[in-house]
Amino acid sequence: MPNRLARETSPYLLQHAHNPVDWRPWGKKALRLAREGDLPILLSIGYSACHWCHVMERESFEDPETARLMNRLFVNVKVDREERPDIDSIYMKAVQAMTGQGGWPLTAFLTPEGIPFHGGTYFPPEPRHGMPSFRQLLGAVADAYANRRSDVERAGAKIREVLRRSATEPQPGLGAGDGGLGGERLIGHAVALAGRGFDPAHGGFGGAPKFPQPVFLDFLLRAGQAAGEGSGAGGGPVRGRDSHAATMAAHTLKRMAAGGIRDHVGGGFHRYSVDARWLVPHFEKMLYDNALLARALTRASLLEGAPDGGGRTGAGGLGRVAEETLDYVLEDLASPDGAFFSARDADSEGEEGAFYLWRPGQVEEALDARAARLLCRVHDVSEGGNFEGRNILHLPHDVDAVARQEGLGRGELEAILRDARATLGAVRARRPQPMRDEKILASWNGMTIRALAEAGPALGRPDYTQAAKRAAGFLLETLRTGDTLHRVLTGDRVHIEGFLEDYAALGNALLSLYEATLEPRWLAEASWMAEAAVDHFWSPAERIFHDAADVGEELVVRPRDILDNATPSGNSLAVELLVRLAALAGREEWGEIADAVLARESGTMERYPTGAGRLLVAALLRSTLPLEITIVETPNRAAAMLARAHRRPHPHRVIAGGDPNEPLIAALPAMEGRRGARGKAFVCRGGRCLEPATTAEGLGRALRELAGS
């Protein structure tokens, strides 16, 4: 007999629709039932691709005895954290404040008013490693609520105050006594602090488990290049910025690309690594991870490429890894309408990672003897295995060294391996596949569109640009109703009004799409997203952005995250969008809003730089002279120049222009006095402009001269 979740559309909630637990979706009805019955709420938050969510479901939520206890003592509420990041943010912070740790599945106990008073993450069915069993926990919490209500109310009031402060009060800066660190000093401090935790052997920061942190890697790549350029906003030396920043980022990306966190057969990356060397991943594949990593890989590939920004560095280069990552997204996560699904599960056949693992015999059965031997050698496939008796493909050896030892050229070995992996991919496709979460989320799609839009001209893949345009058009047509952007499309149902991250992520994507095409529609839509973000999420009195709109549901606090998590925070995305539009469209009032947030949150950036990568990017943009490229030409005739402009990486590059007869384009500051210069490209920095170029080659020469090699 299905429970009330059977009427929902979230794949995660539907996974629990046949539990014997009397689950309810979040909403006024559940809160009212708790008040009327004077029962505490058991709130369980997770997502469809979460391995430990599946484990807790099998162990506890499918167990009739546990379900009877839950149904008798609690009002039980399930939330998909991907649909409702506002609820997840509030109660994740509460559990972190109570226990010092967080994660999913998230288990929180609330009063009927929604105030948290106890919580944790995964709880086992039997006592284990000092943890109580889930049933023991249920009994203890229910007893406290029934018999020690004053203790519960005090605990709830204390946590609510913690939540209020975290949503409204800025972090004190390390340099607060002298006005805090600002501009270039802040960037240098962030790079230096990251360097202390850098793993020089395997890349990444800290020990196991290791998360990709692509947002912070993007910041390091930009900061390193800014150091190499040697000039800041004032034209003087960039003090405190260390070119080692880009080296740390590139090394991390290369070690990840060699590790088991990358799917060497099908492309793309898994969620994170449980070890320090990127070998053993949690096997779920998330859309946002692959979008954000593709952007970082694209930028890193341009920095490691030829001086004119070719981006392709041979068969093993980061440019190829970027393309394989985006190719995976287009092949496996693209919807028929051109938007992008959310995730692939970690589990298949009831086992984590089963779809991705290999035994030597399986490789030998699929390939000829020579190809099987070479693949097993290069990708470390052995009888003993490297994961529970089976093998995660990775690249522990230098491929050039293996080629020399085998008497092969690098290109010859790569060709053999490429064909072998394609054959294994065809074999693997016949296995039972992990579930695909087919909901479409505005913010995650925005991150993907931006990755495609930036990689298209940079990597010479016009199909990426077309895919970005198709997805953007579909989202704007489907998710926007009047003046409201919605967050979720599941099947044919559009629901949940958008959060700050939805407007800001999609706004940044549309702006990148304009820079990739010079089509005015995308600039107009990016500006609309920025206007909406300021109108509905910005609080002039508090000088902060809230994550939920001013007309949204009233929760225990109005949520606000400043730090990036698995995805960039809505605040950091909004600030970046305003900074970019201020530079491109001359909207300095938006730049002033961004400056207010950056000044207010300088303490957060000082103390937690690896969690503030996108804010640090925005701070770097505001403290670095932009490289201004203006192409006065219709979009269909500007492709060659646009490609050359995108292949020259720069920490703060602004691309403008288009058809001078378009009113929106003609009004851009960069077009002033240039409307009659059709077919020409202008390169300027700090008030210095070179002679206009009339060819892509000429633009490349101008970029080398003004941006430096």
Key terms:
4 domains, alpha+beta, Glutaredoxin, Glycosyltransferase, 22 strands, five-stranded mixed β-sheet, 709 residues
Helix residue percentage: 40-55%
Strand content: 5-15%
Sheet with the most strands, sense and barrel status: 5 strands, mixed
**Order of strands side by side in the largest beta sheet?**
1-3-2-4-5
Distance between the termini: 67 Å
Quick one: overall form?
Answer: globular
Number of contiguous helices: 27
Instruction: Classify the secondary structure makeup into a structural class.
Output: alpha+beta
Work out the oligomeric state of the chains in this entry. single chain
| Integer-rounded radius of gyration | 26 Å
CATH architecture term of the largest domain: Alpha/alpha barrel
Structural features, described:
Residues 176-180, 230-241 and 306-316 have low confidence and may be disordered. The strands form seven sheets. This protein has a five-stranded mixed beta sheet, sandwiched between helices. Strands 13, 14, 15 and 16 form a four-stranded antiparallel beta sheet that branches. It folds into four domains: 4-168, Glutaredoxin (3-Layer(aba) Sandwich), CATH 3.40.30.10; 182-348 and 437-622, Glycosyltransferase; 354-433, no CATH class; 627-707, Glutaredoxin (3-Layer(aba) Sandwich). The chain is an alpha+beta fold and 709 residues long. The radius of gyration is 26 Å and the shape is globular. It starts with 10 loop residues before the first helix and ends with a helix.
List the helices and strands and how they pair.
Blueprint: H1 11-15, E1 23-25, H2 28-37, E2 41-46, H3 51-61, H4 64-73, E3 75-80, H5 85-99, E4 106-110, E5 116-120, H6 134-147, H7 149-168, H8 183-197, H9 214-229, H10 244-258, E6 272-273, E7 281-282, E8 285-286, H11 287-304, H12 318-333, E9 343-344, E10 347-348, E11 351-352, H13 360-366, H14 369-378, H15 399-405, H16 410-428, E12 436-437, E13 440-441, H17 442-458, H18 462-479, E14 480-481, E15 484-490, E16 493-497, H19 500-517, H20 520-537, E17 538-539, E18 544-545, H21 570-585, H22 588-600, H23 602-607, H24 613-622, E19 627-632, H25 639-646, E20 653-658, H26 663-666, E21 680-685, E22 688-689, H27 696-707
Parallel strand pairs: 1-3, 2-3, 19-20
Antiparallel strand pairs: 2-4, 4-5, 6-7, 8-9, 9-12, 10-11, 13-15, 14-15, 15-16, 17-18, 19-21, 21-22
Helix pairs in contact: 4-6, 5-7, 8-24, 9-10, 9-11, 9-24, 10-11, 11-12, 11-17, 13-14, 14-16, 15-16, 17-18, 17-19, 17-25, 18-19, 19-20, 19-21, 20-21, 21-22, 21-24, 22-24, 25-27
